[in-house]
């Protein structure tokens, strides 16, 4: 296969980013079936979910700068290969333990592929459009998340093999993207000298304050995901009265649709404005989710999902923009990997806690605890964003 052009490479990297969220969210609508057919609890379901960020964290710590040495293409291929394995393990899983193993493979795959794909989109972006790469990355991940809920909902509700066919389709799509990724250029400006070895993610001293703000902003988005992804289907079923997997998937799809809409419509905003607006919409959205505990309503669930999705999109775009625009090319992979690492630490910790509260005290209590604790974190994010400045001339020129 001939080497792809910069434009084709950009969109192939976007497809890799989309698959990262599709594969991570693919089991979401299957959790109620696992609970019904295999007898697992809500806490068990959130442990399945948490295996993914746990492995992803390990991979980011050990291999966060790998693509700076062996190239974006090779690292992406390793990640997609692991995602295919994990998806097939899900498809053939005979029991609970195998679901954990599947999530570990998918976590490893996303940990390897998502950061270099995000960086590659900046590097392959057309001249003058590098600043919009963050919003396109966010949109791509939103498309992947929407596909996971809509395709998954349709296949689980109406197709045969509801616990299997969803994953076969995802594995086939991932294989197609893998083939295209083999034709990516080995494009890696300012590649460090020497061989790669395991080392801590290196954040340049002068960028650490900005890195902290960017990582916290990404973490805010991922905390929202820790509530929506493992518990969203149960929220719709228990609180909003939805018994149809496709209806539930469609309701959950408004979340990624608003992620994409918010990212695209605000791509010219300054990151301070993005972050402040993200915090406001996330807070309102989460408290509306809490309100569904007292007022079960599909309409209320719809509005809550829309606002939470809008906040997620703005927050993720702002964080990714900070981490890519404020970093020199040779540090981009480390900066982005570090941001994802912090985000997944937050997500991996929040999901099992919320799951345990749901199992022990009910989903309404979990929603209330999540709304209170998340509000405090979102307020800190909004205050921190006031310290943002423009990139230095050196970094801006290198970008």
Automatic annotation (TrEMBL):
Residues 1-399 form the Major facilitator superfamily (MFS) profile domain. The chain crosses the membrane at residues 46-64, 76-98, 104-126, 138-159, 165-185, 210-233, 245-266, 273-292, 298-323, 335-357, 363-383. GO terms for molecular function: transmembrane transporter activity. Keywords: Cell membrane, Membrane, Transmembrane, Transmembrane helix, Transport. It is a multi-pass membrane protein. GO terms for cellular component: plasma membrane. It is found in: Cell membrane. InterPro entries: MFS (IPR011701), MFS_dom (IPR020846), MFS_trans_sf (IPR036259), MFS_Transporters (IPR050171). Pfam families: MFS_1. PANTHER family: MAJOR FACILITATOR SUPERFAMILY MFS_1, RESISTANCE PROTEIN MDTM, PUTATIVE-RELATED-RELATED. This is MFS transporter. It comes from Mycetocola lacteus.
């Amino acid at each position: 296969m001939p080497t792809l052009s910069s434009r084709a490479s950009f969109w192939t990297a976007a497809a890799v980013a989309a698959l990262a969220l599709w594969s991570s969210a693919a089991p979401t609508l299957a959790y109620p079936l696992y609970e019904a057919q295999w007898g697992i609890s809500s806490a068990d379901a959130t442990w399945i979910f948490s295996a993914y960020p746990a492995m992803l964290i390990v991979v980011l710590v050990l291999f966060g700068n790998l693509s700076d040495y062996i190239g974006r293409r090779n690292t992406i291929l390793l990640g997609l290969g692991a995602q295919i394995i994990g998806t097939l393990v899900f498809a053939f899983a005979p029991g609970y333990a195998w679901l954990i193993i599947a999530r570990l493979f998918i976590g490893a795959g996303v940990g390897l592929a998502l950061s270099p794909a995000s960086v590659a989109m900046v590097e392959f972006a057309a001249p003058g459009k590098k600043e919009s790469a963050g919003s396109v990355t966010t949109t791509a991940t939103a498309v992947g998340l929407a596909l996971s809920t809509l395709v998954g909902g349709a296949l689980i509700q109406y197709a045969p093999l509801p616990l299997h066919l969803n994953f076969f389709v995802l594995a086939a799509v991932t294989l197609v993207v893998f083939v295209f990724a083999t034709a990516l250029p080995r494009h890696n400006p300012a590649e460090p000298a020497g061989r790669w070895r395991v080392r801590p993610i290196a954040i340049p001293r002068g960028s650490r304050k900005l890195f902290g703000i960017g990582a916290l902003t990404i973490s805010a988005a991922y905390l929202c995901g820790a509530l929506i992804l493992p518990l969203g289907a149960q929220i719709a079923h228990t609180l909003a009265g939805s018994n149809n997997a496709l209806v539930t998937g469609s309701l959950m799809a408004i979340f990624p649709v608003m992620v994409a809409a918010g990212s695209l419509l605000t791509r010219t905003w300054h990151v301070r404005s993005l972050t402040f607006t993200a915090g406001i919409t996330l807070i309102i959205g989460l408290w509306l989710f809490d309100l569904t505990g007292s007022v079960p309503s599909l309409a209320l669930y719809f509005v809550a999902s829309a606002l939470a999705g809008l906040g997620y999109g703005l927050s993720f775009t702002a964080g990714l923009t900070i981490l890519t625009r404020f970093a020199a090319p040779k540090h981009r992979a480390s900066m982005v990997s570090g941001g994802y690492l912090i985000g997944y630490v937050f997500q991996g910790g929040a999901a099992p806690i919320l799951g345990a509260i749901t199992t022990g005290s009910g989903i309404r209590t979990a929603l209330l605890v999540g709304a209170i604790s998340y509000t405090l974190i979102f307020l800190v994010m909004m205050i921190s964003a006031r310290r943002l400045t423009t990139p230095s001339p050196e970094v801006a020129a290198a970008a």
